[in-house]
Amino acid sequence: MTKIDTTADATEPETTEFVEESTSLVRQFGLTALAIFMALFCGALLLWAAGANPFVAYADMVKGVFTSPAAISLVMGDVVPLLTIGLGLMIAFRAKIWNIGAEGQFLLGALFGGAFAIYSPIEAPIFIIPMTLLVGTAAGAAWGWIVGFLRAHWGVNEVITSLLLVYVAGFIVVYAIRQPMRDPEYFLPQSAALPDTARLGDIPWLDVHAGLLIALALVPLTAYLVNRTSFGIRSLMLGYNPDGTRAAGVNTSKLTVRIMLISGGLAGLAGIMQVMGAETRITNNISPGFGFTAIIVALLGRLRPIGVFLAAVLIGVLNVGGDALQRSQGLPRAVVVVIQALFVIFLLIAERTGSR
Amino acid sequence: MTDRDQAGAHDNRTSAAPTDAGDGAPVVVAMKGIRRSFGDLLALDGVDFDLRRGEIHALLGENGAGKSTLMNVLYGLVSPDHGTIEVDGTPVEIDGPHAAIAHGIGMVHQHFKLVPRLTVAENIVLGDGGERWTRLPDLAEVSRRIEELSDRYGLEVPGDSYVWQLSVGQQQRAEILRALYHDARILILDEPTATLTPNEVEALLERLKGMAAAGSSIIIITHHLDEVMSSADRITVLRSGKYIATLKAAETSQSDLARLMVGRDLQEAALLEVQSGAAAGAGQHAQAGPPVLDVQNLTAYADPVGGPRRASSDDERVALEDITLQVSSGEIVAIAGVQGNGQAELEEVLLGLREVASGRIVLDGKDLAGATTSHVLDSGLGYIPSDRYRYGLISDLAISENLVIDRVDRAPYGSRFSRNFAAIRDNAISLIKSFSIAANSPKTPAATLSGGNAQKVILARSLRSDLSLLVAAQPTRGLDIGAIEFVWERLRRERDDGLGILLISTDLNEIMALAERCYVLYRGRLTESPMDRDSIGLAMGGANLTASGEVPV
């Protein structure tokens, strides 16, 4: 029996090597190209079946994204939340802490940050902008903390808690904008608008709010955090081998809680930036599911900061291009969504195959 | 299908089955020349084994001797490379547990295979009927038969209870009942006493004797000598995959068995050499320095059965009971014992990974009971874990990272907000050289290393300059002779330089080769034993050490 055991011991947890730069970059590149081609090909079949000329349709899509400045700012508008949340999820996923509740952390960041801005007696931008960002981040972090604490101290599965807390957060938002924060001037339940001083202005020459700068700055910041701090290496250790990490003297409970604080905090930051830059008030649809799409962004980005950035751009392009396609070809929304999904699926297949 | 085979079995039993001239009881199972290898490892090397009707036959051997593999062959879980199996004198091919059950063979595994959320009756009929669309058997009828069986064999198990409600002993009885329900007349029990309390052990052995008297044939896999002597009729000893001897319990003694199990005379030349060197070394270093580790009345609990956090307090088993031991600087003190007697828990408690229920652990004058692992490591304890892939390495990370995982935020390797990759690389290059670790580059993942080289990485990391005690648990398990020699040599050198070493080992050769003093851990209790093979071997099997005056309480 011992002998069988030794062979069983030899099959260690699967090696998902996403940190060391893969030696087969060329192969990976080829696989990615193949995946994009396959997605385009299957998408073409679908478009053809839906009665559109695939070539014309794809041309519309490209035109819709890259020829109008408005479209580029639309893409960037999606990139801000997707990138910010995606970087936070990357930090959690590297430790194999599967925070899939970023949507809830995003919503609470939006709500509490927004509430602070609306009710703050001081409206000077120098105070209200950083404080609002901080409150939003803290609200998201607090929602993440619950998940981290439960997992660290009672071993409660974070997939379940983080997901269920999304619904709790959603209902809190609905309650807030129907009851205490409701703007009575409007028929639809929504909060009052944020004071002008609390809004993130547009970047000059670009029709995108300044949240983009924050999101972009987070790329090198998180890269430093995961690659060049003891927190980063310990997170990775925790993901690979929790027992070994404990035996190396790491307080894994504390680490788990910290990871969830950061992961939730970034989602909360994305939420409040969305309110301060794009929505200007808290409504029932602040998020078209950014928190969930960001899971794909983090995974597609292979849990590397630059990768997450590229993945966020790709998803943004697919969103905006899909909308253009819908308009120009009069295609049903479903076809567009399926084409987007094809890209994600084939790219994930390529990524998994490449990491073998 | 069981019914048909049952009928056949009855015919066989009444017809002329091959009998042993000596005892008269017919041989029900004969395994001949069983050979099986796993990769390079020869787990069974032409082993013979036979079982007579109505006997309890103990299969004895150290960890890795091949006992479980042999029984897995009989139960159809492992197919032999060579060899034949006869049941009731007829050659049979057992290509899976279904075939084994059809021949009347049942097995109770060390780790029970019961579904906690189903009742005993449901568990017993679970997997019945090979056909996919058959209806479930009538559970009331099943319960009735279970009751009948439990009455007949004295195996009280409430058939309608859920398995999660049962104690470990009851679960085991349910497993035995499952085998009997499927008309097993040949019963294999793999380490049946490993998880039982002493009272439960006694009760189980009584019941097994009763079953044997009623005509069942029973094989017990074990390494507890006292159980063997008190329950078995015959004993077969295996060592390193080889058949050593079959003896009548009435005609042998615990010390004979210990000797056969451990195999004094079967030394590899290289090991012998190293060993004789050690004997000389042991003499020189008998004068130990001041005490570095002082453990007083340490008690700790094992993980409750059924998951670490679920069970209530009455499921708590004591893993370490009132342990007292000392290690001085410049000496190697061994903790001998068969795996599963508290070694894993002792490692974890010393490292701060497991809670201390009571008692003191004093390292260099500092009480470390209840301290965090990082505090323990900082206090000068080095650690070579018995499970090197679980506690020793982060296999997916580079070798260079593995060499500093316990010091990532310490100078010169980094601080809280920075890492010094040059220092990490230089450290790796120098350790790879001084410990001759066979690796392509410091960046290679530790997972690619062979067992011996993986162990060298752990050794290199653990042997820091500021160490006062090294806990080395199974430091050479699974290593080849070259690597064993390397590790032993290194441990001796550290001892000579004044390090105190606590060697937790199940390998008597290793203990004899390295240690100056020895304790034996048996069922969570520790007794000091004189440094000779027979005494240690006996104590490992739980025998009273009356000769030496050390009597376990």
How do the strands and helices of this protein lay out in sequence?
The complex is a heterodimer of chains A (356) and B (553).
Chain A (H helix, E strand, L loop, with lengths): L1 H9 L14 H25 L4 H13 L2 H26 L7 H18 L5 H30 L3 H21 L32 H18 L1 H11 L1 H6 L4 H28 L10 H11 L4 H25 L3 H22 L2
Helix pairs in contact in A: 2-3, 2-14, 3-13, 4-8, 4-9, 4-11, 4-12, 4-13, 5-6, 5-7, 5-11, 5-12, 6-7, 6-11, 8-9, 9-11, 12-13, 13-14
Chain B lengths: L1 H13 L12 E12 L2 E12 L3 E5 L6 H8 L7 E6 L2 E3 L4 H6 L2 E4 L11 H6 L13 H15 L14 H14 L4 E5 L7 H16 L3 E6 L2 H7 L2 E6 L2 E7 L5 H9 L6 H16 L6 E11 L16 E11 L3 E5 L6 H8 L7 E6 L2 E2 L5 H6 L2 E4 L3 H5 L6 H4 L11 E2 L2 E2 L1 H14 L16 H12 L6 E5 L7 H16 L3 E5 L3 H7 L2 E6 L2 E5 L3 H8 L13
Please, could you describe this protein's structure?
The complex is a heterodimer of chains A (356) and B (553). Chain A is globular. Chain A has 14 helices and no strands. With 356 residues, chain A is mainly alpha-helical. In chain A, 74% of the residues lie in helices and 0% in strands. In chain A, helix 5 runs antiparallel to helix 6 (125-154). Chain A has a domain at 81-299. Chain B has 553 residues and is of the alpha/beta class. Chain B has a six-stranded mixed sheet with strand order 6-7-8-3-9-10, sandwiched between helices. In chain B, strands 16-19-20-13-21-22 form a six-stranded mixed sheet, with helices on both faces. In chain B, strands 2-1-4-5 form a four-stranded antiparallel sheet, with helices on one face. In chain B, helix 17 links the parallel strand 19 (469-473) and strand 20 (500-504). In chain B, helix 9 crosses helix 19. Chain B is elongated. The relative contact order of chain B is 0.10. Mean pLDDT of chain B is 82; it is low at 1-22, 265-284, 305-315 and 545-553.
